[in-house]
Every structure is written in structure tokens, then in C-alpha cells.
């Protein structure tokens, strides 16, 4: 009998100790989780951009779809003459809006930001409402403080803003979602217009002229190249005097353009596509010694006024001329003999376009439509496009 009592007492004591241990373990986990939640939720809804490069791959899954994760807050993008178009990483981007900010006040903040970036467009209020819809990440009909902080930080980035503005356009990658200071865009199958990827060590020893010739060997068939080129021309139309002003393409290079398995062009990097109004305000009256001091990216150039030694605000080459410069070798190599001469003529006319030319907009539209028509007529009845 005593043995049974001791056994029962031991089992009861063991159950009590185990329950006590489990209770305190649960309490520690609960309190720790609550502290972490309070610390992080008011910052960026549990998404920390500074850890992005450490723990999140650039290629990932958002929902059930493949996407590309971008964490641009870590990068400092500069104008060549020392003024920034986008934030440096040391700037605190998550200090706005503050707790207690009303939705109406947040809308006014976003409106003022757009007015500074895009100019005094008549339909900025529509864009503000669109942003509020996008900012509601969990689609609960309300914009939380964390969602508002995240949206405000990302709206400083031209690529994010452009993806929102052009979200219904065919050649702009879809914005799949965002969290904190990272955002996810749809994955693109081919991430360069042409060429082959080589280890950087080998790249160092390849002459640039030979590299360009080698790149031309690794391209799709000509009808498919023509379809991709038409996509680039259509994207130029999308950003040329669109609903929220003109955007300037300041780095039109093969590495920033891609295409999908249907050979539809997709922009893979739009960080150097900037609002014209914004660029003009930042570049004008900057001190310069020559035209080389008045450049943003690789392709947006203004001139240096030697009488005042300051940069002018008018960009010399329009987007279309820069796009045609890129497409010249791409399209002429392997072009059908019956259209090659006309194609070359139109491409050179396109490259010669200047912003300051009389009736530039009319010439712009005429050249763009003629090029698209010439290419479409040639590939419309081929199976290879």
C-alpha cells in the first residue's frame, strides 16, 4: 500500500513539475513574442530591409508565383554632379507618417510628394487614390501605420512609382507585393536583350568591341528580335507624355531589358527612368565646366552654358532616339534583304531626333509609327514571331 502511495505521489509531483515547466516556457515565449511584435510592427510590419540581403534571395516565391525581390533602400543612387534623385541609405525613410496621422493627412503628404516629383499634373488626386489602394497590402479596406510607412518609403523610388503608374501596361513587370522596404516584381525569363553571361574574371580580358560582336551571336531569330524591338518602342510610348507627365529613360542598355517566353519585352530594371520634372529641377543651374558635368545615368544629357558655367535643364536626346541607337545593330544584323535598306534609313532618322527640334513631338510620333509598321508587316505572317 505504501509503495502504491509513493508511486502515485511521485507521478503527481512529476506532472506538477512538468506543467509548471510548460507554463513558464509558454509565458517566456508569449512575452518574448509580444515584445518583438511591439518593437517591429510599428516600424515596417515585420519586414526589415536591412536584413534583406542577408536572409532573402533576390529570386523567390511570392504566394505561389516566382518573383524578384528588390531591396533598393541599401543602394545610394547619385546624380553624377552630386545631387541625388533617390534616397541614400543613411536617410531614415520610416519616420513618416507618424502615429496618429490621419488618412487625409497621409493623402496630402503623398500628393505633395507627387507634385514635387511629377509637376503640377491635373490628375494627381487619382494617383493618390491609386496609391492608397496599393498600400492596403492585406486588402482589409484600411491602411495601417506599417503599410503607410512602407508605402511612403517605397514611393521615394522611381521604379516603384513607375510600376504603380504603369501597372496595366504590357511591358512593365507586375508589382506582386511589398513589405517594409522591399518589394517583389514578376520574374522575367530572359533578363538581357542579348548576349551570354560569362564569369567576371573572363569579362576582364575580353575587348569591348569583340564582346559586342559576340553578344550579337547570342540573340533570338530576327522575327523574334523584331517583336522584342516593337515592345521597346511601345514602352517608349508608355512613358512619353503619359497620364502623369513624361519620364526620361536615362540608362537604355541591353542589361536593363528582358523578354518572356513569348518574346514580349519586359523592363527588368527601371531605376534610372525618372520623371522629367524632377530631373529638370535637380539638374538646372548646377555648376559645370563642360557638357560632361551635366549627365545623369548614361543617357540623360543636358548642355553646359559656358556663359554662366551652369547646366541647362533641357535633355538633348529623347527616349526614342536612345532606344533606336540600342536597336540599330540588334535589328540590322540578320534583317531580311527586302527591308534592310528602309529599316536602316528609318533607324538613322530616329537616332537623329533632338528634343530641341521644331515639331519634335510630331516627328517623334511619325518615326515611331513608321518603324512599328515596317516591323509588324514583316513578321505578321511568320510562325517565328
UniProtKB/TrEMBL annotation:
Compartments it resides in: Endoplasmic reticulum membrane
Domain of life of the organism encoding this protein: Eukaryota
Domain called FAM69 N-terminal: residue spans: 12-134
Protein name: Divergent protein kinase domain 1A
SMART domains with a match to the protein in the record: PIP49_N
Species annotation: Ailuropoda melanoleuca
A Gene Ontology cellular-component term: endoplasmic reticulum membrane
Membrane topology, record value: Single-pass type II membrane protein
InterPro entries: FAM69_kinase_dom (IPR022049), FAM69_N (IPR029244)
Similarity annotation: Belongs to the DIPK family.
Spans traversing the lipid bilayer: 21-40
Keyword tags: Disulfide bond, Endoplasmic reticulum, Membrane, Signal-anchor, Transmembrane, Transmembrane helix
Amino acid at each position: 500500500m505504501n509503495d502504491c502511495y509513493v508511486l502515485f505521489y511521485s507521478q503527481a509531483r512529476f506532472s506538477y513539475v512538468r506543467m509548471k515547466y510548460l507554463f513558464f516556457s509558454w509565458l517566456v515565449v508569449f512575452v518574448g513574442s509580444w515584445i518583438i511584435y511591439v518593437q517591429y510592427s510599428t516600424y515596417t510590419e515585420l519586414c526589415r530591409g536591412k536584413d534583406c540581403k542577408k536572409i532573402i534571395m533576390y529570386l523567390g516565391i511570392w504566394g505561389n508565383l516566382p518573383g524578384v525581390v528588390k531591396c533598393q533602400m541599401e543602394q545610394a543612387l547619385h546624380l553624377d554632379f552630386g545631387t541625388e534623385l533617390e534616397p541614400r541609405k543613411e536617410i531614415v525613410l520610416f519616420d513618416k507618417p507618424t502615429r496618429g496621422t490621419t488618412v487625409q493627412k497621409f493623402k496630402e503628404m503623398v500628393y505633395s510628394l507627387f507634385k514635387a516629383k511629377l509637376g503640377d499634373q491635373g490628375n494627381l488626386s487619382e494617383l493618390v487614390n491609386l496609391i492608397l489602394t496599393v498600400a492596403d497590402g492585406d486588402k482589409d479596406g484600411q491602411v495601417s501605420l506599417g503599410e503607410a510607412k512602407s508605402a511612403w518609403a517605397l514611393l521615394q523610388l522611381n521604379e516603384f512609382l513607375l510600376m504603380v503608374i504603369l501597372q496595366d501596361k504590357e511591358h512593365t513587370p507586375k508589382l506582386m507585393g511589398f513589405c517594409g522596404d522591399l518589394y517583389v516584381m514578376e520574374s522575367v525569363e530572359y533578363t538581357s536583350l542579348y548576349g551570354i553571361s560569362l564569369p567576371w574574371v573572363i569579362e576582364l580580358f575580353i575587348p569591348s568591341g569583340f564582346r559586342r560582336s559576340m553578344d550579337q551571336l547570342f540573340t533570338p531569330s530576327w522575327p523574334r528580335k523584331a517583336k522584342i524591338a516593337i515592345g521597346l518602342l511601345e514602352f517608349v510610348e508608355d512613358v512619353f507624355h503619359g497620364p502623369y507627365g513624361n519620364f526620361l529613360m536615362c540608362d537604355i542598355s541591353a542589361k536593363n531589358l528582358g523578354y518572356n517566353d513569348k518574346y514580349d519585352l519586359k523592363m527588368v530594371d527601371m531605376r534610372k527612368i525618372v520623371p522629367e520634372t524632377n530631373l529638370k529641377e535637380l539638374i538646372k543651374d548646377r555648376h559645370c565646366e563642360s557638357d560632361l558635368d551635366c549627365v545623369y545615368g548614361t543617357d540623360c544629357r543636358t548642355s553646359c552654358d559656358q556663359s554662366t558655367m551652369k547646366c541647362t535643364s533641357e535633355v538633348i536626346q529623347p527616349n526614342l532616339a536612345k532606344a533606336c541607337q540600342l536597336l540599330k545593330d540588334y535589328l540590322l544584323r540578320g534583317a531580311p534583304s527586302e527591308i534592310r535598306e528602309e529599316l536602316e534609313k528609318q533607324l538613322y532618322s530616329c537616332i537623329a531626333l533632338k528634343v530641341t527640334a521644331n515639331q519634335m513631338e510630331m516627328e517623334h510620333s511619325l518615326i515611331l509609327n513608321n518603324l512599328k509598321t515596317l516591323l509588324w508587316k514583316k513578321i505578321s505572317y511568320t510562325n517565328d514571331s
